[in-house]
Amino acid sequence: MALIDGLLQELEQEAQTTRRVLERVPDKLDWRPHPKARSLGQLAMHVAMIPGALAELATSPSPAQLPNFTDPLLESPSQLVPKLDESIAKAKKILTGIEDATLFETWRLMQGEREIFAVPRLGILRSIMLNHWYHHRGQLSVYLRELDVPIPSIYGPSADENPFAP
What we know:
With 166 residues, the chain is mainly alpha-helical.
């Protein structure tokens, strides 16, 4: 089994969990827990778009310039799951069949002439595409809790949902 196959399996499993969280986002898209925080809509759209955007970035030619990360405007929570589905499909298309040797190539991110970091492409996919995605999904679940929205099961029971209950 190629390394990418395990990563793609994890991506698919986590996409199901992320979908459950995004399905709960209420139509309070401008709400934010603090003036410095992203709004609910901004954070939810970011969560929906991370896999495809980061798969594309991590497989781009190196060195790459630091992109200007902006999430499209979210008009309705109903846009979230389709955006996630597009993002997952994009990530799968980009990553399917990528060779192990390519995953171990050093990839550099630059800001002008300054190197931000240099890591194997696999490191970008693991730490930024996946771990960064999980981090923001966790933030989103806290936003939902603050809005008194029932939290779905993520890695086992939540206070609102227990997939193991009879």
